[in-house]
Amino acid sequence: MIQCNMHGAPHSREQNDTFVGKLAKSPTFAKEPRQLQFEADINRLFLYTSYNRVGKDAEEADVEEIINMASKAELADQERQVQENIHTQITNFCTSMDEILLPDSKSHDEPLGSSQKTDTTPRRSGLSLAIGRTTPANKNLDVPETKQLTFTEASQRLKDLMGYTLELKPSQIQHEQAGQGLFIDGEADVGSVIALYPGVIYSPAYYRYIPGYPRVDARNPYLITRYDGTVINAQPWGTGGDTREPWGQPSVYRSNPGQPPSETGSDRVWKMLSKPLEGSRLASNGEILERRNPLALAHFANHPATGMEPNVMVCPYDFPLNEKDMRAYIPNIIFGGIEEVKMKRFGSFWFKSGGVSSDGQTEGPIMKSLALVATRLLRNEEVYLNYRLSNSKRRPSWYTPVDEEEDRRRWS
């Protein structure tokens, strides 16, 4: 059962599963189990993050109002509120990181570009290799001056400010593939943003540029997919670093770097659909990312073993790219640049669509990232995430489903 630190009891896991299960079997919803699971997830995130926003000392009436809204609000309204709740937390995190890393004379409200800068030539790193970078897009990217702190020092100072940070230690899960586990050092309340999923972001238009395509997950356990089809590859990020670094975009498309293109029927269809994009130029603007990001370790969260329960869940977070002062702390690069090619899904295929939102308004540039949100109070313990691996494919021997029906609905 989900243990929420709330005055009013939220939906328990058993109640939620029973409700979703009944709807999934009804004729009305049977054709859209994936959408149904998405709505159930957003509903839970609405409850958790809204409670976190009102705080531990919230009045009983405030908690009851949140629960009431969760049962009545439209999906779109709940999504917007979740985004706002998450963005507020990440804004506070970025403010704390500014306080830790920027010179004492700087403030979060003062543009980063106005600080003393270091003229730095980008070096070839894991992330630049993953996005197919061959030559620097800008040989003189300016890196704002920061304090000379190591990753470990920055992490400890974040704990002093926020009450928690993250660390990597041998996992408590007893199987050889568990390796390093993600641990929270300190205490975080339910609904807190625990970690950010770093790495290279691929929209469906660029799937075939993911290293190893089409068998992208054969040697890479650090891939994750959002409900909207966006894939994030965290492998190049590793465990972070000790500097603020310039990261560039690839200047030209390179289909399937390091491996000849496959000629399967699926690949031929993709080649046909993507042909207008081949040879076009990618954005060449550099990105400066803070590698001393203590929360950019979500890819080390393990799946719970038998008898264990997950204590975080995935939350989609659309970072508004106009938030320039926060950009360095969002540990992602968009493959193909910010001019995203919008796609729509029809069955198992993705097609290009228009560039406006459902209400006809042009959308501002966003980065489709992911965060891990606490589903209960966490205190000095390992972080466990339900991987929800597809039950239509062979799964690893160590994988025990938390909820087989959720897995099925997620990948239907």
UniProtKB/TrEMBL annotation:
Residues 252-264 have a biased composition (Polar residues). This is SET domain-containing protein. Residues 104-131, 235-266 are annotated as: Disordered. It comes from the Eukaryota. InterPro entries: SET_dom_sf (IPR046341), SETD9 (IPR040415).
